[in-house]
Design goal:
Blueprint: H1 2-31, H2 35-52, H3 57-60, H4 63-95, H5 103-118, H6 121-132, H7 136-162, H8 164-172, H9 177-215, H10 218-228, H11 232-260
């Protein structure tokens, strides 16, 4: 019996791999992508990068301006994430099976999370760009909406996983809804929630660069400006400052996670 199951499992694995190979081949054929040609262009691309993406002394004079835009982007990401997190806590409480008030609010909270989470931040940027124009409000709202859906979904799962037994114990003592949320749900779910918020701050700082290119704000706009003016040395400097900022924030987030989790 076990041998039959193993043979069936191996057969399924082989069929699955064959399907992947066929789909990959068809995709390459339809898009006229040649893997060997792609590999052949890598040395030339690396040579171009080595020749053009050099940071010169003249480029460093632009560093104060770049840092100003980078800080603007970081603060915008933090503000959008924080505001989305506050609203997501209420939506998470409404959407959780443990703390929902009624089915209508639960379905509504999950629907809002699903809509805002399943539409990429780039798509939100383009949608909001039409309504609000090219300004910082559009960039803020794009990050806010994308974060709202992700955090609401994450908070619903955190509350469901963390608070079941404690909620039942407080319900048995006759505690009110707000007492249950305040004494059991939030304290148990808070470390996991903070971890998700830190994760979204990191993600939003990365996404803010692309959002900024579309909405004309922050470090993304600066990157786009230098790129379109063919100032590749400045483009390299912008890229390096973004990478360093992300690494620093990632390091800080990891340290905070070790303390709270």
């Amino acid at each position: 019996m076990n041998e039959t199951k193993m043979r069936k499992s191996r057969m399924q694995t082989v069929v699955f791999l064959l399907i992947i190979i066929i789909v990959t081949y068809l995709s390459a054929a339809i898009t006229e992508f040649n893997f060997l040609d792609g590999l052949a262009t890598i040395p030339k691309a690396l040579g171009w990068m080595a020749a053009n993406l050099l940071i010169t002394a003249e480029t460093l004079e632009r560093l104060p301006t770049i840092m100003e835009k980078l800080l603007e982007t970081i603060f915008m990401s933090i503000a959008a994430t924080t505001l989305a997190a506050i609203i997501s806590i209420f939506l998470g409480l409404m959407g959780s099976k443990t703390t929902k008030v009624n089915n209508v609010f639960s379905i509504l909270a999950r629907f809002i999370a699903s809509i805002s989470r399943n539409i990429p931040v780039v798509a939100w940027s383009l949608i909001l760009l039409i309504s609000f124009g090219q300004n910082s409000v559009t960039g803020f709202l794009a990050l806010f909406v994308g974060t709202l859906g992700f955090l609401t979904r994450a908070f619903i799962e955190s509350i469901d996983e963390a608070s079941g037994d404690a909620v039942e114990a407080l319900q048995a003592t006759g505690a009110t809804y707000f007492q249950i949320v305040n004494k059991a749900v939030i304290p148990q779910s808070l470390p996991q929630m903070l971890s998700w918020i830190l994760f979204m701050i990191e993600t939003n700082i990365r996404s803010a660069t692309l959002v900024g290119i579309l909405t004309g704000t922050g470090i993304g706009y600066t990157f786009d400006l230098y790129y379109k003016s063919l100032n590749y040395n400045a483009v390299a400097l912008v890229t390096i400052t973004i990478v360093i900022a992300v690494l620093i924030i990632d390091s800080i987030s990891n340290r905070i996670r070790k303390v709270i989790l």
